[in-house]
Structure formats: structure tokens, C-alpha cells
Amino acid sequence: MSKQVAVLMGGWSAEREISLVSGAACANALTGAGYSVTTIDVQRDMGGLLTRLFPRPDAVFNALHGRFGEDGCVQGLLDILGIPYTHSGLLASALAMDKPMAKRLFEAAGIPVAEHVITTVEAARAEEPMARPYVVKPVNEGSSVGIHIVREGDNIPPFQGDGWAYGEEVMVERFIPGRELTVSVMAGDAVAVTEITTERGFYDYDAKYADGGSIHVIPADLTPEVYDRALRLSEMAFAVVGCRGVARADLRLDGDDLYMLEINTQPGMTPTSLVPEQAAHAGLSFPELVAWMVERAECD
Which residues form the catalytic set? Predict the structure, then answer.
């Protein structure tokens, strides 16, 4: 009999819509690879989710993005149920989603990161948290949700008015000019380096998903030394956070200096997503990639 796989998708975070696209793509690929697949649009009704998970599947493919699905919450539930799941476990998921904590771990391991401060929206409204230009980030969102660059000459900081909906605590990070790089890591081994360019000037949520306004150059046109260093730093970030399965590290290159921005334990799995692109570059088709992930599913 074929292995039974439940694909968790949707959820209620700011990334719900992209999770539905990721989940549908993964479900179709898994079906094509010979698995018996059930899709579950996860809602806040935990009793309903538990009902959908019985009889228990052989594995869960976690295609959730954002809060609850990416921060250790659903991982803890699946650990309790004893259902193996893809991607990282509870602790690594929680650490990676908490940007300040992840940066502490990176710094302790010798991975370069941008200078930052943690402050409140109220304090940031009263006084600029650091010299411009700087980047404002929610402390626990993904897919560039809520991120703003505050540049010289900007008149309205992102905290003014009613436009901020990501909690009272924020990370303010020194803006690093230069090139946007990303590296997929599978089971601890870096796959490739992609450079991302966009006419929007910043690889935000819309550039990633809404308007196709980004160009992916794979392999990135870098010196061999910088290319190799990007691979090694990404593997270090994967290891220090305790990731497993597939994750994606995002970096900035300023001159010859590399800075780790974050590691994403639930990278996008849409037709335009970076991890499937890099896997294909390495000779692994999309169905082969998702099957690889399912076969390595486990609990903490």
C-alpha cells in the first residue's frame, strides 16, 4: 500500500494564501510520486484538526507558513500525536521564527549579522531607534511580511498611523546595501547560491509572490571564495539552530562581506519558490524533492 501523507496548509497567519498555494503544489507532486494524499486546510479549531488526522497518516507534509505553522506550535502537536512531519522540529522552528533569538545564536557561532535593536512601537514613534537607513521587522513573521526600509528623506515612518499590525515589539536593523543571496540547505548540505534582483528595490512579499517582480540568478555570479563562504555560513546557520530536512538561509552581500539575515525553516514551495529552483538546478525534480522530504519526516 502507498504511504498515507496529510498535507497541512492554509492556517490563519498573514501568509495563509501563499501556504494554500504551497500546499496544493506539494499535494499534487506527492500524488504524482505515488503517495496517498489528504489535504487539510488548518483552522483555529484544534478539535477539527485532530479529527482530520485520524486515522493517523504515515507522515505529515507541513506546508504551513507563518505563526502557528512555522513557530513550533503545530510541531509540538504532531510530536504529542507521534506523527512524523517534514521540516524542522519544535525547538528549531521556534528559534528560527524568533528573529532576535536566532541572531544571538548566529553571533555566538561567529556568523556575521547586521547590528540591531529591539524596541517597542511606542518608543520608535517617539524617537528614531537608530540612524537611517534602517530596516523595521516584526520579531516573528516570515516571507518579508511587515518589513519596511526607512531611508534618508522618508517622511512617514512605518509606525505612524494605523498601518502596523505585527505586535508591540519590533526589530530595527541597520540596512545593509548590496546583493540579496539565498541558499537552500538539505539535511545539513548547502545546495546552491541564488542571487535575487527586483525592480521594486527590495525583495518584499509582493516581489516574492504577488507580481513576479523578481529575477533569480542561479548559480549566483560570485567569486569562488564568496560563493563557497555563502554555502558554509548557511550550513552553519542550519546546524546552530538545529534544523532538519529542508531550510533556506537568506544573506546580504556588501562588497565582500556576507551577513546572515535569517534561516527559514518552512521555505515556500510554490512554482516560483527558491528551494524547488535550487533542487532542480542540482538535478532533483519537484516530485523527487517533496518525496525526499516525506521520507525523512520525523518527530522530535
Answer: 15, 143, 209, 248, 250, 262, 264, 268
